[in-house]
Amino acid sequence: MGHGITIEEEQTSLKAPVYSDAACQIVIGKAxxxxxxxxxxxxxxxxxxxNFAEAVSNIGYCTDFENYELCQSIYLSFQVxxxxxxxxxxxxxxxxxxxxxxxxxxxYGVKNxxxxxxxxxxxxxxxTVKKTGGDTTYNKDVDYMASFDDNGKVxxxxxxxxxxxxxxxxxISYQKLKPSGVTADDIIGGYDDETNTYKxxxxxxxxxxxxxxxxxxxxAPGYSQDPNVMNALKAKSKNINGVFKVINICDVDTNSCKxxxxxVDWKNQNSYTDESTYLGFPMVKIGDYKMYASAHMSACxxxxxxxxxxxxxxxxxxxxxxxxxxxxxxxGTEVYLSQVQANFLNDNGIFTxxxxxxxxxxxxxxxxxxxxxxxxxxxxxxxNIFNWWANTFILTHFxxxxxxxxxxxxxxxxDVENIRANGFTSNEKIAGAKMIVQxxxxxxxxxxxxxxxxxxxxxxxxxxxxxxxxxxxxxxxxKKALFGxx
Length: 486
What we know:
alpha+beta
């Protein structure tokens, strides 16, 4: 029994949603892992990177973009678009004999107690240093030290009190990475149930359990022009951990397609026609660097999404400043498309670039278009919204699983979703969304088995991809200007 006023606080029945990270890129390819202290620690496992320094220390970085595609994404994401996070999966494996190359003994001159190996990809732990005039093998960290210079080349420093202190030349052999040994099969990867190990694209399954990231964009630059890799990306995009969805960005093969007209036949013949795929042509250039459209657009899209204060992927990455200096084919041939030519690609589900007062990205359509014109699938902004909304719903309401199927618990889910929808609608990030539960969707057999079906409408705004201004000549205005009201 009490006297006076008392306050009791109830736990809030509504909870803030957990937003999936739609801007997070997942990139599969090759990295210069020889530059790491432990190269084998970065093979076929997802590695989360939040800035350039972390990329350098955890995955390795150089500007040999042709051999190490992951470096394209590092450069574009951190030095051009300034966006994070990124998850990298490197498939280049020093334990795979196809991925390394033996370099036989060569003679190297010693100057100022240093010898230089002018080669890239050298694995430090495999270096053998011998006396030039005999069979004496020198000991690492006793007679010499090996390290990388700023260009990723190996420097052999002779120890002042070591056995090689008087040498003017050395015989050196080593192993080095062989990026050309990586095949499409390595990128596709797989799962070994005996060892419980994941490789390549299949390692995407480990991103959420290990890193807590769902991701929003999946790419394999340098390999996505292979239809087998595209099919693996497509399959994974629709079913990560059995529930999550992302988009994948792929490249037209610019070795095969030299003109914009040839892209359409290539696309259709190789079945790049899925609603989860955003397909680009050609490659892009920044100065002397050539990079794949998939790597570029992935970073551009990530920035477009991240620029929203809530990370809602409702804006198309089309007609944005590309930050490039040109476009090209794989052989370096420059490509300049008119708007008419670029629109031809867009009309066939291929994004591209135009030089319109500076280079711009160009194209809203997913690869499913024109065969599939459903607005939720056709436009990249709509496809992103649907993926993000679904992933967010799963993350937000997963704690409700196994709670009693009571009306109160159902209403809590519905209220959270409708309140969230109202907020995004008022901010014009979507045209509207609404969730309901209805008896017709829920037969008794489902209910007694513990299954409930909710129904949610979701309407993103389509991109304003065409504006028509109808101009006409007004003779009356001319007569008035000449003769007034007479």
